[in-house]
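Input chain follows. Return structure tokens only.
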Amino acid sequence: MTIDRRDFLRHATRVAALGAIFPRSMLPRLVRVPPPAGWSVAVDPDPAALAATAVDAARGAGAAYADVRLTFRQWRGFGWPPSELEEMGMGARALVNGYWGFASTPYWTPDEAARVGREAVAQAKANALGTQRVVELGTIPRVSGGEWSSPMQVDPFALAPGEVADWMDGLRGWASELGGGLGINWTVGFVKERRTFASSEGSTWGQTFHTTSASVGVDYKERRWGLDFLGPAQGGWEIVQRAPVRDGIRRIKEAIDEDVALPEKPVEVGRYAVLFDVGAMAALLAQTIGYATELDRALGYEANAGGTSYLNDPLAMLGSYRAGAPALTVTANRGEPGALATVRWDDEGVAPESFTLVKDGVLADFQTTRESAAWLAPWYEKTGRPARSHGCASAPSALDLTMQHTPNLALQPGAGDADFDALLAGMPDGLAIRQVRPEMDQQHSSGVGLNTSNSVYEVKRGKRVAVVKGAGMLFRATDLWRNLTALAGAKSLRWLPAGQSEKGEPSQTTPYSLGVVPGVFKDITIVDIMRKA
């Protein structure tokens, strides 16, 4: 590896967690591999030149198409203990006789670039010994030397080491003055990632992503609630600086005071009208429509890995399948400012577009890549649209194979200005739930909504009257969304980093954000999760 990172990578690679800012991967994975022959520490390499070398090697070895990605990620965490880690990767993908091959390396040298290019072709040729296969990639505009960076105003990697800790310690001191034994716990993480891309079609680009994540938990009266507006999101330290943190802590304290004043009662099994807040709505949307509209899942290509989909006959279901009530419209994008899946180009060089997955309750489209868009060509031809990728190709890093992953999802709000409190006031009786953790079957069709915290409330005549203990929910995805009766208005729309697209073998996970509003559903089956057989 020809690179000058001072003490970085002395015959080893320090690898940060893939997407270290996200809850399921906060702990870094450290990978140590022997250095390749000829390893030396010299000057910084040119990622664009390495990408070109890998592409040329793949074409020279017989690839009909090839693309190469290089990623360099820096992660800095504040908390206890503080940490700072880095990860590098280079990956080549090659297409030969309708089959893909992929190879990757953590080393950035010209020899390694040529090797992974040739190895990707060798993998594709080995795969091509199977049944004959045709891959239609279509055409996309060529990007020549494109550059993009996610907006960022205060570079967290330029902050003085103690500035973040001083800010958080000041918040902790202020919170202690509110009384009642209120305490604050916090962690902060920053990621800076540079991605470089080149393809045999002549596209080249570089993108830089800045992501900030802060966790602020409030410990009060034997409860712990957290602020949900501090990321992770694309941006710099300004995300935390400008957030209404102190107002949020005051509101949490007031809400907990109200909670502890309510009586507690055991759950009564039955069917209820249920009001979900934005956190619960995001979790339900991600685990049902988010997963189910991944086209490779719907066609069974993820059956032995991430699972399949209850939307299992795409061409027959598009335009006719009732996925929800008429109030349900879900769109997808990779352009929402600050959202986790936002990019200028996807990992195939496609400029993503916004598109509608569910329109007025009817299935309207699927998430696609350059290859999978052709699988829906009859539907697109019928509706007068070109069969082009929506720009959903992604991977956690260049060490991972490019796959189709979920983009940002947005639930269209209801008409009017109703918020959570207004929807609550309009309920004659039922339940209000502010937290749910869905666990789904392989098709993401049937699920169990678990809730073991104090966040389920009995509602009578528009008011919360008790905390309900031991409540869980059973649901089928289509029945759930078909029973949607009301949505809050646009002023209640919140973007939350609640999405995790997990698939592949070995498993890979990419994050996305969801724009959601509170919603009311009828006939939700509530069960007692504490009951013993």
